[in-house]
Design goal:
heterodimer; A: Jelly Rolls; 2 domains; 2 helices; B: alpha+beta
Chain lengths: ~230, ~200
């Protein structure tokens, strides 16, 4: 018996064709998804790796250049001194630090520059507080103590006073001095800090007796002053 | 005790699943980047002290700066406790001569390279006034002609010290003791010279 010629697929064939096509599509999408997932995994791994390397490398360099380490700085109470400042044989951290600060200080072979951004209790210096800087007249050829804002700018004030030196500071008969950092007028050695925000105190000691020791018997430590908070607003 | 031991063992086992090669690669990469960033840092600074002063100072001429005030502070952390005289020098064309008198303690004459290195410093003292004569040459190793002294152009009877630097800044610092002393301070500072010693 001759079967009639079919010009269109039967119901069964249509079903078979459709399901086969659907399966193929599903498989392709699944494969695509898997590849995308693998690619995203690989990319996220690389991104994580690059992120960790960038943060670790640049971040650690930035931190050590800004704050120094025990190898590059000497910390005495609130005072920090970069031991190789402005020297020809300075280490890369010191070199980078002072290039960024854009200062031209004297080398530590002749002068020591101490910077304080905190008081003796370790709290950040701020113009809303009043501080007393107590010390013994420093055993040096000449010294100066200046106050700046956190960026190294002088603090404008009506009496144009920004620093005291061994020549200008009033010293008591027992060879002690007290410098007051305050907004309002104070008796004695007053350095105005009118609304500057965060403060930086810089003590420069020229030819401190411990800078170059010719005779070890004459060795004397420089006693750095203390910075004590009196009160805050 | 056993619980802690088990925890420690589990922790040690979990360490074994970490790819140590990846950890080592990460640490080495961090180290390399750290070194590169630190060494490159001085060269990436947009405005160094030298470049800031270069715009305001004449070349091979000593200039006395006005008293440092908040609106006239050429560099950060430049203290107002001293008066400054600066000379931006270039010894490429020939030796530069710098002379200065350091009459008292606190006075200093310093030479700085464009990178900020302090390559020479002379300090004053109370016992006597010091007259400093410096000759800055571009290179000590190469012959750059006869010295002014050998040509009979000796500038003073004071011993001349030679410093090697192609360019840089000479800074004379004079303690600012107040109005009463300012005239004498300025007079002493005006004696400081910085010039190209023609041969």
């Amino acid at each position: 018996m001759k079967t009639p010629k079919q010009y269109w697929p039967s119901k069964e064939n249509t079903l078979t064709l459709n399901t086969g096509h659907k399966h193929t599509m599903k498989f392709a999408i699944h494969r695509l998804k898997k590849r995308a997932l693998l690619l995203s995994h690989a990319l996220s791994d690389w991104a994580a790796f690059i992120g960790i390397v960038l943060i670790g490398g640049i971040g650690s360099s930035w931190y050590l250049v800004s704050n120094g380490t025990a190898l590059t700085t000497q910390v005495t109470g609130p005072w920090v001194m970069w031991t190789n400042e402005a020297r020809v044989d300075a280490d890369p951290y010191t070199r980078a630090h002072f290039a960024r600060e854009a200062t031209l200080n004297l080398s530590t072979q002749v002068a020591s520059t101490f910077i304080a951004r905190k008081d003796s209790d370790g709290v950040r210096l701020h113009s809303s507080c009043e501080y007393k800087i107590n010390g013994k007249n420093l055993n040096a050829s000449w010294w100066s103590l200046s106050v700046f804002d956190s960026s190294g700018r002088l603090i404008p004030n009506p009496i144009d006073r920004y620093a005291f030196t061994s020549d200008t500071v009033a010293i008591s008969p027992n060879d002690q001095f007290v410098i007051t950092l305050a907004r309002n007028v104070q008796p004695g050695n007053w350095l105005p800090t009118t609304g500057a925000g965060r403060l930086t105190v810089v003590l420069m000691v020229l030819e401190g007796r411990n800078a170059s020791v010719v005779n070890p018997d004459e060795y004397q430590e420089i006693t750095l002053p203390e910075i004590t908070k009196v009160h805050c607003r | 005790m056993n619980v802690y031991l088990k925890h420690a063992l589990t922790w040690i086992k979990s360490l074994a699943s970490i790819d140590m090669r990846l950890v080592a690669t990460t640490l080495v990469s961090i180290g390399i980047l750290h070194i590169c960033a630190t060494l490159a840092s001085p060269h990436l600074v947009e405005k160094t002290a030298y470049s800031r002063l270069k715009a305001t100072l004449p070349i091979n001429k000593m200039k006395i700066l006005p008293p440092i005030k908040p609106d006239a502070q050429p560099l950060p952390f430049l203290s107002a406790d001293v008066r400054y005289a600066m000379c931006l020098f270039s010894a490429k064309a020939g030796p530069i001569t710098i002379t200065a008198e350091l009459p008292d303690r606190g006075w200093t004459l310093s030479i700085h390279t464009p990178q900020g290195d302090n390559i020479y410093t002379a300090t004053g003292n109370t016992a006597r006034s010091s007259q400093i004569t410096l000759q800055i040459v571009a290179s000590m190793s190469s012959f750059s002609g006869l010295t002014p002294q050998s040509l009979g152009l000796t500038l003073s009877e004071d011993p001349v010290q030679t410093v090697e630097a192609k360019k840089g800044i000479a800074i004379l610092r004079a303690p600012d003791r107040g109005e009463a002393y300012s005239r004498n301070t300025i007079l002493a500072m005006r004696k400081a010279k910085c010039f190209y010693a023609k041969q």
